[in-house]
């Protein structure tokens, strides 16, 4: 690799572990075409990392592809490897790939993919060189094919081999699964077989990841950076390696993800084309010190904390109580933060006939708020739920878990922004809205709200 000035410090394992790079969707391979320059701008940042990654993970769509001509496809691959990635010593720094919708869209392109990439030959029947696994010490990486022609093409994925492979490597401390398509919608972009895997696969697929203690599912396809959690397993979507379009424009950005794995978990930093860290996170989320918890009084009160949700800041709420014993569909406030005379920028409570735990965030005056939806509460049930607010996770940074489990899940949303621009107001209300005791009151019983704040 070329020596460059202005180096970028890489995150390193805390003790034994792994240090690697993750990026996807460059859609290049054609000299002088639109994405060659943007891909080069990301690779310039990659080359500034010190130390360089031990290996690189690329979850699909390296080249623009989508041509019926096998010779043209092979030429794109040659240009991508020999010219655009010519700076990389692949013998010293291996790079592993997944299939993608620009690269494996029919039987011909699958054959070219197999021949050009020559990936490990240990996948399921019929998918030689398309699905495979790599064992690297205490790290297992399983690469699934989310668009195999033998199952029906885009959005279809084989899961029996995945489960068997994970079970056979139960001794691996770290398990990562990689595929091109997300399992859960990203930034509100949803649609089975096109923007995510088919819904008939999603549930069983994620059940396997949870059961086999997979740390994260790494994917791309949606042109964004996004991280969310579901039952303790991360979905990390990175598709900023060079494709010049964004989903959506003006919010997402070209990027690469540098990460470190060790016995304490995963840490990553997301670098833009200027080498600036735009997002970062540590997983699993660290728990607040027990001494930091504070009980909040019912009714309106001055806020114990306020100010902007800067990077590294995390707020955690613990909600204890019993839901209403009768069917109630109207909104019920558990916690809200507001400025008198304006609509609350943060509201947490129950809404609808299923008493769905809901967060409403208002950002700009005159603009509709954004909604996040959590678990439903059955009538008359006792609950003990933690809610975490992590601005570094974007839309996935509103999470919940039940007190008896350590597995966090992100609230569902259709927004491309999280709470990174929220500034906490200096007034709170517990068990009622900002308008007083008659404003959207909590209609259950024994409500208790506690709060803790951490800053990394």
Report what the structure shows.
- There is one protein chain.
- By secondary structure, the protein is α+β, with helices and mostly antiparallel strands.
- It has two domains: 8-283, 4-Layer Sandwich (Purple Acid Phosphatase, chain A, domain 2); 290-455, Jelly Rolls (Sandwich), CATH 2.60.120.
- The chain has five helices and 29 strands.
- It has helices at residues 34-48, 70-84, 107-117, 160-168, 199-211; strands spanning 8-9, 17-22, 49-50, 55-58, 95-97, 132-136, 139-143, 174-178, 216-219, 225-230, 233-238, 256-262, 265-271, 277-283, 294-296, 299-302, 307-308, 313-322, 332-338, 346-351, 356-361, 370-376, 382-389, 398-402, 409-410, 412-413, 423-424, 427-430, 445-455.
- The protein has a seven-stranded antiparallel beta sheet, with no helix packed on it. Strands 5-4-2-12-13-14 form a six-stranded mixed beta sheet, covered by helices on one side. Strands 6-7-8-9-11-10 form a six-stranded mixed beta sheet.
- Strand 13 (265-271) and strand 14 form a beta hairpin.
- The radius of gyration is 23 Å and the shape is elongated.
- The two termini are 33 Å apart.
């Amino acid at each position: 690799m070329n020596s460059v000035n202005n180096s970028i410090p890489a995150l390193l394992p805390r003790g034994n572990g792994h240090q690697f790079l993750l990026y996807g969707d460059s859609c290049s391979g054609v000299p002088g075409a639109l994405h060659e320059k943007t891909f080069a701008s990301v690779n310039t940042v990659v080359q500034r990392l010190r130390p360089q990654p031990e290996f690189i993970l690329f979850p699909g769509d390296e080249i623009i592809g989508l041509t019926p001509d096998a010779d043209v496809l092979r030429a794109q691959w040659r240009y991508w490897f020999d010219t655009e990635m010519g700076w990389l010593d692949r013998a010293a720094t291996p790079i592993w790939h997944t299939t993608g919708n620009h690269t494996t869209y029919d039987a011909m392109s699958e054959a070219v993919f197999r021949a050009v990439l020559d990936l490990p030959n240990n996948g399921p029947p019929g998918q030689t060189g398309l699905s495979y696994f790599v064992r690297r010490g205490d790290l297992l990486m399983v690469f699934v094919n989310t668009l195999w022609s033998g199952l029906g093409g885009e959005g279809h994925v084989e899961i029996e081999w995945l489960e068997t492979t994970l079970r056979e490597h139960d001794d691996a401390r770290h398990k990562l699964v990689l595929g091109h398509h997300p399992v859960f919608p990203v930034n509100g972009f949803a649609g089975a077989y096109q923007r995510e895997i088919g819904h008939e696969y999603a549930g069983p697929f994620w059940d396997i990841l949870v059961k086999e203690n997979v740390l994260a599912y790494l994917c791309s396809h949606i042109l964004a950076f996004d991280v969310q959690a579901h039952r303790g397993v991360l979905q990390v979507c990175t598709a900023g390696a060079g494709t010049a379009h964004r989903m959506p424009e003006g919010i997402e950005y070209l990027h690469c993800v540098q990460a470190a794995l060790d016995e304490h978990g995963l840490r990553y930093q997301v670098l833009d084309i200027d080498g600036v860290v735009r997002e970062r996170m540590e997983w699993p989320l660290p728990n607040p010190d027990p001494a930091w918890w504070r009980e909040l009084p019912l009714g309106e009160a001055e806020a114990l904390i306020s100010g902007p949700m800067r990077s590294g800041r995390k707020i955690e709420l613990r909600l204890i109580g019993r839901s209403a014993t009768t069917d109630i569909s109207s909104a019920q406030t558990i916690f809200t933060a507001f400025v008198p005379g304006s609509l609350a920028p943060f509201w947490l409570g129950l809404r609808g006939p299923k008493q769905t735990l809901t967060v409403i965030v208002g950002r700009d005056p005159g603009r509709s708020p954004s909604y996040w939806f959590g678990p439903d509460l059955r009538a008359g049930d006792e609950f003990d739920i933690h809610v975490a607010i992590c601005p570094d996770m974007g839309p996935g940074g509103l999470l919940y878990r039940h007190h008896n489990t350590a597995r966090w899940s992100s609230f569902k949303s259709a927004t491309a922004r999280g709470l990174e621009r929220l500034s906490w107001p200096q007034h709170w209300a517990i068990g009622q809205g900002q308008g007083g005791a008659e404003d959207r009151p909590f209609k259950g019983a024994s409500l208790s709200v506690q709060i803790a704040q951490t800053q990394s």
